[in-house]
Amino acid sequence: MIRLRGVSYAYPDTANYVLADLDLSVGQGEVVGVVGASGAGKTTLAKIIAGFIPSIEGGVLSGDIDVNGVAISSLTLSEAVAQVGLVIQNPFNQISGAKFTVLEEIAFGLENTGVPREEIAERVQAVAKQLRVDHLLDRSPYALSGGQMQLVAIASMVVMRTPVLVMDEPTSQLDPGGSRMVFDIISQLTDLGTTVLIFEHKIELLREHADRVAVLADGRITAEGAPRAILSDPRLEKWAIGTTRYTRAGLAARDTGLAPVTGELPVSMPDAVEFFGPSGKH
Ligand SMILES: Nc1ncnc2c1ncn2[C@@H]1O[C@H](COP(=O)(O)OP(=O)(O)OP(=O)(O)O)[C@@H](O)[C@H]1O
Ligand SMILES: [Mg+2]
User: How far is CA 280 from CA 15, 77, 207, 276, in A?
Assistant: First the structure.
């Protein structure tokens, strides 16, 4: 699990606090989605939980950051990496640059952990199959499309089986089918007890797959709760995150008196069918 209390952070040589008194918790086996405008601090927060800030980037960090009951600041970077897998925003930067094939790339993190060679090979094959990159295992990691590279970057973290996985916009390069596949795999991981925090712009996918959703704005969590309630909140426009066309249609229907002013607005197509449909409650 992840527990953040009163987290504030400023990058080196800057006066502005990117995060200011932020609280957020994710229970074991839970998938929490975080939405936030560009520049809201999503990547910064992801790096803090993974222990890369301040150890690598420096800056001024305060507050409590606990992962599985242990302060991340009390761990060495290699201990932190064993607890939290971070899928970084740009998959190109996740590629180690040290390996010649996708197979070696996915195995890279496991090689230093004492896992026997045969088990590494089995785990790499299984994860590659799960993420449908098994046909790419002999390729150079640099000879991949953006989407393929992103799937390999995710595979290289999933294969580690860390108790916590933090994913920074992991579907940005993927088509709708690829994005859904990644969320299906997240569901399988959380069923096995993995804790997942995902920063994601695809609101309809979060509506469907997250247990809870939090909004990052003004350096803190400004709203948090059930996916439909949070993702249909009209304040998402003010926070420069935006709402789906289904939410906007629902709001318009309310404004013109075509829908009741109470109840939850729709976020996704199935919500809209329920909201507007003849068999729905309205
Ligand atoms: N190394 C750095 N030094 C100084 N400021 C930085 C640094 N990295 C990021 N920032 C600033 O911190 C703020 C938060 O950036 P961050 O990358 O965490 O946002 P984000 O929510 O991930 O945005 P995006 O959606 O574009 O990925 C921004 O104002 C950014 O300019
Ligand atoms: Mg980012």
Answer: 52, 52, 19, 6
Nearest-ligand number for the alpha carbon of 57: 1
Q: What would the two tokens of residue 165 be?
A: 């996985």
216 & 267 share domain = no
Do residues 273 and 213 both lie within one domain? no
**Mean pLDDT of successive 10-residue segments in the chain (282 residues)?**
98 96 98 98 98 94 97 93 95 87 95 91 97 96 95 97 97 96 96 97 96 98 98 96 96 88 90 79 50
- Which atom of ligand 1 is closest in space to residue 44's alpha carbon? 18
How many structural domains is the chain composed of? 2
Instruction: Calculate how far, in angstroms, residue 220's C-alpha sits from the geometric centre of ligand 2.
Output: 15
Residue 10: give its domain's CATH number: 3.40.50.300
Ion ligand 2: residues, Cβ under 5 Å: 42-43, 89
What spatial distance separates the first Cα and last Cα of the chain, rounded to whole Å?
A: 39
Shared-domain flag, residues 150 and 266 = no
Residue 159 phi/psi, 5-degree rounding, is -65, -25
Instruction: Output the pTM of the full model.
Output: 0.95
- 164 with 273, same domain? no
**Residues within a 6 A CB radius of ligand 1:** 11, 14, 18, 36, 38-44, 89
